[in-house]
Amino acid sequence: MSQPATPTVQTPDRRTARAQSHLKMIRTGVRSNRAVAAVLGVSHSQVSRWRQGQRPDRENADRLAGLALVVEMLLRWLETDIVEEWLTGANAHLDGATPAYFIQRSRIAEVVGAVEAMKRGVFA
Fold it and tell me: Cα separation of 116 and 124, whole Å?
């Protein structure tokens, strides 16, 4: 009988590398540090520090990962110059709130649901 896999904890260096990888993906759809900061609800200087190698805390690392996922999904359906607008604009699938509002509160699943509804052509 096999033993369940033991989860591995990422080292600080690995978490930093993953955050920078997420920032690289995010940058393909959200062009400036100020815009990334606005979506995440942090200062633009914080985003700059992450890009320079400072490790984000776990909560912000999770938000970065979630935003990277959402940006990647959006880029499959929207033109690059529309992604930032979609993230910061009112969204009917989110009861008129912005996707950024949900991302700032670590409610990524609801944003992914809004992306999926958009892809299916569902009107709220």
Answer: 12
